[in-house]
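Researcher: Let's try something more involved. This one mixes different molecule types, so please make sure each is placed in the same coordinate frame as the others.
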Amino acid sequence: MRQKAAYHDRLDLFWIAFYCAVGVLAVRLVHIQILRNAYFTEVAERNRTQIIYQNAPRGRIYDRNKVELATSRPAFSLIYLPGKNEDGEMLETLAASLAEELHVEKEDTLGTLRDAQRAQTPVHFENLPMKSMLKLSELKTIFPGVDLIVEARRAYPFGASTGHLLGYMGKIDKETMRRYRDRGYRADSWIGKTGLESLFEDSLRGADGEMRMEVDAHGRLKRRLTLEQSSWSPGGDVHLAIDSRIQLAVEEGLRASPSGQGGAVVLDPRNGDVLALASVPDFDPNVFLMPAWRPERDTLKELPEFNNALSGTYAPGSTFKIITAAALLNDGKVQPQEKVFCPGRFQLGDRTFKCWEKKGHKLQDFLAGLTHSCDVYFYQMGLRAGGAAIERYERLFRIGEKTQIALPGEKGGNLFGPLARRARGKDWYEGDTVNLSIGQGELLVTPIQMAVIIAAVANRGTLWRPHFTQRVEYADGSPAYMQRPEVLGRVELNDTTWDLIQRALENVVEEGTGVAAKIPGITVAGKTGTAQNPHGEDNAWFVAYAGREGEVPSVAVSVLIQHGGHGGSAAAPVARRAIEAAFNIARAPVVPRTPNKPTGADALPRVAPQPNPELPLFPVTR
Amino acid sequence: MKARIDWMMVGALLGLIAIGSVAILSAASPLPTYSQIIQKHFLALGLGVLFFLFGLGFNYQIFQDQAKVIYALALALLVVVLLAGVQHKGAKSWLRFGPISFQPSELARVLTILVLGSFLDSRGNKPHRLSTVAGALAISAPVMLLVLAEPDFSSTLPFIPLLITMLFCAGANPIHLVAVTAFGGIAISMPLMWTLLSLRPRWVATSSLAALLFRIKDFNLHLLFTVCAIFLAAYVAWKVLGMARVFLPGPYFAAGALIVAGALCTGVLVNRQLKGYQRNRFVAFLVPEADPKGAAYNVQQAQIAIGSGGLWGKGIFAGTQSQLGFVPERHTDFIYAVIGEEMGFLGSISVVGLYLFLVSRIVHAARVSRDRYGQLVCSGFAGMYAFYMLINIGMCLGFAPVAGVQLPLVSYGGSNLAVTLFAMGIVANVYSRRYAFY
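Model: All components are placed in one shared frame. Result:
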């Protein structure tokens, strides 16, 4: 029995050891299940939830007739939630299938997937083409973690025709992200990069939707187990003063112009509404939303982002004669009946200034001089009035100052005159006055400046600050901002001066250099300009205003065709298209006109770049 | 009049089986083979009840009398499975009879306990001799080697605690046990250390000891020199101690050196046999951050599951960690994580408590048994199931490496359940016949 007792001692030893070990387990259980329960609960929640963001529809941009210039369309996106234990082989097959459907490089896709796997973050392939939807939804059944969701995608029905005005969207960059993080932007958020998209970013942007989805250990979505969902809310709409018909007409006209380079602005001279603002060469903002990989980097390099209408500065040429005329007549320095003989050239000291008409215009009074844009008349009368007087009127019309349109990149041009010259410490010569009186020399203006000036001629003196907004709304439709007309300045001229200038401008279109813009039933008044420039072919200008007969002018146009040749043949047809669109006149077939200025072979129109046929030029109404 | 049946033990068994069945019902529900699993589980449970009654039905001393037959049966089963077994998860460990498949290694363990009990009882009053330990090792070695040959490393593991517990309770010399344990310990820890060193090249580069240890991981001259050095060191130690007038028997030093050197060589052998996934489990246990997606991930997820269960649990079928597949092997090895998540602290502590109680009843049966054989067999069972429980729950709680050991009576696994109930039947048998010599 003693021996048996010894065995019992050993059994007790075993029992005590086991008892202690179980005690350790129990303490551990208390520790993790009761004391650290909150922590583990949070980890378990994080394990099983995956937040998926849905891009909210951005606010729409309408023209003045409620035609959508920028809208949101439903698009679908493929999301991939990487699992914890996926092998490289699976990623590779997935990348291959995706790359084939998305028409991108397999290496890029694979890299993206690998990064996501490493960081355990979802990947988002946005804006996928509808036609690949079927194929891609097959992937969903083959690969765990692949799913398709519907999102809102930006669309520009007019494509390139509104590219410069609306700007484009892109992924937020790191620098901007730092500033915008508090406003709900994420690293993969879209943001307006340029144009109105950037300008109205805060109004247009909606609040993205958020889905908290339950996922299993492989990252597969449990479809019916959406834990929480906050749906998106769309952004506010922006109503523009732009008239899409005019915008389209102007764009088409510019593209069809001899050089295919230029800019045009159409204003309402009654209130400063921008009816159209166009620049060529242009770009289609839709390409940035294509489902290709990093499209921006490649496209941005050759992107014609330069907006000729705002940022391009050019010598105004003969269009400046309007201001010279005001300087001549308003102070009574020149009587309209006074005649000047034009032999085709003008001699000042040992310098010879030519008239564009080599044969000369013979005897010209004011009306004839402006109608036929006789240079010699303006040389002589300009000299009589003096450079300082012309400069005074130049300043009145705010040349050299920005029109303060609310778009970035606007230039103010260059004021040219004795005072401006003296401010730079240089001397003014008579020859400069001669140059100034026909809008040459160091004088530089932008198409939008000329639009504001011709609008002021149309309304007899009011220089409007051009604006393209009518109102901005909150998402619920209540107004967030209402645009009021703003006056930049007034040009006070005698009524007789205005009458004379306006009559002369009407004559220009009726029988002068601008007959290409003549439209039956509409009173069109305009002035051509053919500005010499040292870089090549002359820049063609045409500024005009128009109204129905007997009514106040309601459209003012300024067109510049870079290297277009003569204003009457290159720029006036564009203005004509704009005016026709504004008055809803069906387009007559374009009849090639004999150019007023014989410029030889250079005057032949070059082949204009064709608009991208794949993208709709006309709005698709929903 | 005392009861013949230990109803308290039966109660503990029923409690564990009930909790286990509910957990299996819940954990396996997202699996495609759900209905099959449930059918098999309850079939095995029914068979287990029959086995329990079989273990209880006749005098257990017949197992002692027929020890040779039982031993032959165990070996035969394992040989048959090697010849005609079915491959599953890389191990040829299943015998299939039509729709029923069976894991003989489970039964072999129980049979080994019965055989060892007979051998140790026959050692009579000389259990402290080295021959006791050697004999027990010699008896269990063929069984273990056959299981290892399947190859099923994790099924071999539980032999170690049952051997040690039975030898210890049989009165074996603790020094012998320490020697054997030291041998086994060194043989197993050397591969562990080499695995660790291969993950930490900087240690090898900066420490000459680490570099030396790392160099002897193969049969080469370095190993030969090390073995010679160990014997030399033992000899020098003996002489120095002798000069210091501390007289210890020479064979002790020789044996010590032999054990260390032998273990080293065995370790090299084991290291060469180790499979990639087994090494990964060690790595996950030693350096969890080195293996975030493999075995360590599993243990982490199991702990998250248990920890997020809280006091009351998330409810049956409602554990996100278990149902969404974050917990691996959720209805077998990691069933305890499912219990912890879905039944909370109350469920998990109940399982621990019931196990503690069950083992205490087995130990009690050993105490009151009428002969040494019954006592030895019960202590073997107590050691084995205590080890099962500690390793399995310890694994779920991050204390032990992932050893692929089930939680008997709770985990899904027909063979294990039926055989465990058979073993419990034998324990109940020992208990019910306790009064003969009192």
